[in-house]
Amino acid sequence: MKHVNRRHQTxxxxxxxxxxxxxxxxxxxxxxxxxxxxxxxxxxxLHAHALFSSLGRLVASPFNSIMTIAVLSIAxxxxxxxxLVLANLQQLTGNLETSAQISxxxxxEISETHAKQLADRIRQNPGIQSVKLITKEQALAEFKTYxxxxxxxSVLKTNPLPIVIQVLPKDTLEDKQGLENLLQSFxxxxxxxxxxxxxxxxxxxxxIMAVSQRAAxxxxxxxxxxxxxxxxNTIRLELHSRREEVVxxxxxxxxxxxxxxxxxxxxxxxxxxxxxxxxxxxTLMMLILMxxxxxxxxxxxxxxxxxxxxxxxxxxxxxxxxxxxxLGSWVVLMYQLQYTKPG
Length: 343
Description:
Layout: H1 2-32, H2 36-60, H3 62-96, E1 102-106, H4 112-123, E2 128-134, H5 136-147, H6 150-155, E3 164-169, H7 176-187, E4 192-196, H8 199-241, H9 243-251, H10 256-299, H11 311-336
Antiparallel strand pairs: 1-3, 1-4, 2-3
């Protein structure tokens, strides 16, 4: 009996030792509930769980995920590919702009020194990109070389060619009115005998670029809406298959943000992966075209190089596709969750 009482007394003595830390932990837990750092940590953990669990659901149904991502990546590839083609065409128009230069034929009595002073004054104009002075001797040498009448020109005792100033304005494909005003000011100059510019060619270039830019904008808008609808429809089907889960979550008091979070991250993953696949698709297509385009450029004596997506443009492509996936998911959730109620 004494032995039993000692064991009983030992338990009574040890019991406070275990009870005291438990009460301290409880107080620590209670005080931590109002700690901002712990709240942020819990918020981070919830988002991380939703982020990776949504990715796991996509991996768990590979066929549906691959089909959705394939359709989205094709739409994004068309939009981004057309943008890249337009960027390459603009690179070509940079070379074509030189054909829109203004040629100023000076009067015979204008000396070379006076012509240089006039060229320097023209360079000070902020609307001028470059100015080139061609003297009488340079013009005569070029005429002998390229005209085929070198022997006939040599018979002449004096040089009949005038001094020419070639002026290349800025933004020749965009500011037609400014180009016309500049041409008129040159024609009124006392040193200039005549000023020539093929305005029809400039108008054609302006029309081509305007049509191309408008077509690119319309195509990108249409394909952007297509991405929104496809991503939204995917989330709608996902929400329908998980309807019972959503209803139970509402019964136990889950907030709307808690229910929406995994679906929004699903839309993010769909858009993100589709954007990455689209980037690889467009890059592969440009690599396939690079060698034939280089050969064609060499045949015409040009120095044309295909432009690819830069680092910033790549980030923009992936960010836009991810944002479209999230936006399409959010629009569908705002509508569908109103009709997904218990009972």
